[in-house]
Amino acid sequence: MKILPSNVLYIDLSRRRVWIEDRRELFEEWIGGAGVAIKLLEEECPKNADPFGPENPIIFAVGPFTGFYPIASKTIAMFKSPLTGNLGESHCGGRSALAIRMAGYGAIVVKGTSETPVYLAIHGEKTYFREGSAIWNMANSYTVGRILRDKEPGAGARTIMRIGRAGEKLIPYACVVTETYRHFGRLGLGAVFGSKKLKAIVVSGKKSLPVVDSKAYREVYKEIFTLLVDSPSMKKYHELGTSMNVNPLNELKALPTRNLKEANFEEAEKISGETFAKDFLGRRLACAHCPVSCIHLATLRTPYDSEPYFYKSKMISYDYETIYALGSMIGIGDPKELLKLLDEVEALGLDAISTGIALAWATEAQEKGLISTKETNGLYLKWGDAETYLKAIRCLVNQINDFYKALGKGVDYASAIYGGKEFALAFGKNEMPGYHTGLGAHLGFLIGSRHSHLDCAGYSIDQKIIASGKNLTIEDLTQELISEEAWRQILSSLVICFFARGIYKPELIIKAFKPLGVEFTEGSLKAIGNKILKAKYEFKVREGFQLSKLRIPERILQTSAPAGEFSKETIINGLRLAEEKLASL
Amino acid sequence: MRVFKLVKRLAVVDVDLCVGCQCCMMACNRRFGEAGVAKSAIHIRSAGGIERGFIVLVCRACLDPPCMKVCPTDALSKRLGGGVILNQNKCVGCKLCVNACTIGAIFWDDVNEKPVICVHCGYCVDFCPYNVIKMEEID
Questions:
Q1: Residue A542 exposed, middle or buried by CB count within 10 Å (0-12, 13-18, 19+)
Q2: In a domain, A413, yes or no
Q3: What digits encode the pLDDT tens for the residues A401-436?
């Protein structure tokens, strides 16, 4: 007997029908998470689907370790991205993965479009289409969460995924917020929810799942748990959280600043993990079934202007990427102002990274006279001016004119209309993550299937190059990026958080599978990883993606990076090599 | 011989240390050799949004347990050191104990139709990385 998830819950919003299929064969061959999700996406998403049409499915998938072992706590979402027009893949923690598995599912497929606003309540084997009109047009995602917490059962064993105004307005980088502080952040799942008139999904359940060998299961569990709690590699996530990267990257001159005109921010210390911990850290939280608690919430106390002695104290989540995007990238060095911006994008349900990079591009475009106050609705965007940026975010989310509509489609789109492509920092149309370490990072953003730093961690290769002083040939670099991305498909099929990538090595994964009655070898795992990456790449190509046609923003060549200079020709060469390698996986 | 010193109960030390990882819940369920949460006698939920912190729901070993008083079949008996011991064979699954527990610390096993009540074994304590819970000796 193999203990694997097998049930796939299908929900058709158009016909208001729900059914469950046993898709055991999918999980046996493709493990779960990213592997199962790409197969379901292939099945459900027709070629050239309109990302906002009923034909674009939303797939959620969890893995065989979810509920069994700690930190297998991510849910993988796949859909056709309205931002890039090809593969939409976004990972989210919180309580989502455990709730889906405990409700009895390995994956959930949401198809069709509802005519009227709706939210889904999935409690174990029961799924309900609930009236969503009262929470539609509700701008604040915090409020939606509070209402559904009271309205729905399952406290402590549920996830509440919801969108804010950005998703309703179909902004292609709108996110889905879960448990208030975690996100399906990138590539626009929030807008796909919005296009389906789907405001939220609540999932709850409490199952007990058998294993084949209880004694071995408890032993392996204990081993993994101890590694997660005691390992030095987990320490940074555990203590300062991801924001501990601000200072080291700044010292390295790899922290993109003011739209990457520079890579060093003179006020970095003020928005560093150390400062946030000292002055603002109010609470630390964990995803369900993860002992690490990397989620850091700042407490921000602000007075009301209208009434003396009235204050509001808000808990606001911060991470390295969001500090970069809405901090250094737009020149914000005041931590309180930065927190206000983070709070606003959270409430509106925008992806913080894309929003920050959009504002950074717009600021430089205005500086260079490509746009004027006519476009910005009278705003003078200025580095470090948070108050004006808050106004711009509201203009953007409310889509008040053609300029903000264009900006809402991403910097690739906006720069094609207004100019300034050379400093429009998007890769494969997805806005840039916060690493200007060198060629590895940038080539990784371009060739990674999600155009994310998490695809293949090029920044980590750059850092090794910086430390050792030994350069890689473009051939070796490309190969290393692709091998890393292929292996990460296994982690994201097991839905193991990448923070634990140093713990869940092949031998430990093989060992952990045994009490579940499942046998793998390192070779068989790696072969599946290659297969998943190839399937993802093929989906992208099917939807018109071409590595050789990717736009390379000149700015990344102009601002020097710590791992050394690189040329456009080298990148083009890398893209050509990647194309060959991915095709022959 | 001071046997009484060995009697222990599970105690919540400081709920504000709880990060909501729910590893204690998963540990409790593993006592039965299974993964998941259905058989867990300890539950963690948010105090109204995770930004407000968490609530640890678990039997606090009452010395005069109300759940025991309402059991019509005497399936619950006093545990040395507080709390109760369930005799599965006597239990008829009436749920009166669930309603009688003032702090909501009796859970329900939907498959077996029996209450799930902490036996104060302390297995969960080893899986709480933040020392929210501990085993406490009772005089």
A1: middle
A2: no
A3: 999 999 999 999 999 999 999 999 999 999 999 999
- CATH code at position A480: 1.10.599.10
Interface test with B, best of A285, A315, A317 (most B CBs within 10 A): A285
Angle between helices A458-468 and A474-493 (to 10 degrees): 130
| A505 shares its domain with A394 | no
* Residue closest to B51 by CA, chosen among B22, B13, B16, B103: B16
| C-alpha distance from B14 to closest chain A C-alpha (Å) | 14
Whether the pTM exceeds 0.95: the reply is yes
Please name the residues in contact with A389: beta carbons below 8 A apart, sequence gap of 6 or more.
Answer: A326, A330, A332, A341, A359, A381
Residue A234: pLDDT band with limits 50, 70, 90: confident
Residue A209 lies in a domain: no
Please give the Cα distance from A426 to A554 (Å, whole number).
11
Least confident of A447-461, A539-553, B2-16: B2-16
pLDDT at residue A341 tops 90: yes
With CA atoms as reference, the chain B residue closest to A230 would be B129
Model confidence pLDDT, tens digit, residues B49-79: 888 999 999 999 999 999 999 999 999 999 9
* Cβ <8 Å between B22 and A98: yes
CB B26 within 8 A of CB B37: yes
A482 and A371 in a single domain? The answer is no
CA distance B30 to A83: 43
- A32 and A151 share a domain? yes
Torsions phi, psi of A522, nearest 5? -60, -40
pLDDT of residue B2 exceeding 60, the answer is: no
Percent of chain A surpassing pLDDT 90:
98
- The per-residue pLDDT for B138 is 87
Same domain, A167 and A26: yes
ipTM of the complex: 0.95
Residue A289 has its nearest CB partner, among B26, B32, B43, at B26
Domain shared by A195 and A298, yes or no: no
**Gap from B3 CA to chain A (nearest CA, Å):** 31
**Phi, psi for A555 (deg, rounded to 5):** -50, -35
pLDDT band at B1 (very low <50, low <70, confident <90, very high): low
Domain CATH number, residue B112: 3.30.70.20
CB contact under 8 A, B51 and A217: no
Chain Cα centroid distance, residue A65: 21
Bridge partner list, B114: B109
Q: Could you tell me if A306 and A256 lie in one domain?
A: yes
Partner-chain residue, chosen from A70, A211, A297, that has the shortest CB–CB distance to B34? A211
Which residue of chain A is at minimal alpha-carbon distance from B45?
Answer: A156
CB contact under 8 A, A285 and B29: no
Output the average pLDDT for chain A.
97
| Chain B residues touching A293 at Cβ < 8 A | 19, 21, 129-130
Domain hosting residue B73, numbered range: 62-116
CB atoms within 10 A of CB A327: 34
Pair A76, A492: CB distance under 8 Å: yes
- Average predicted confidence (pLDDT) for chain B: 94
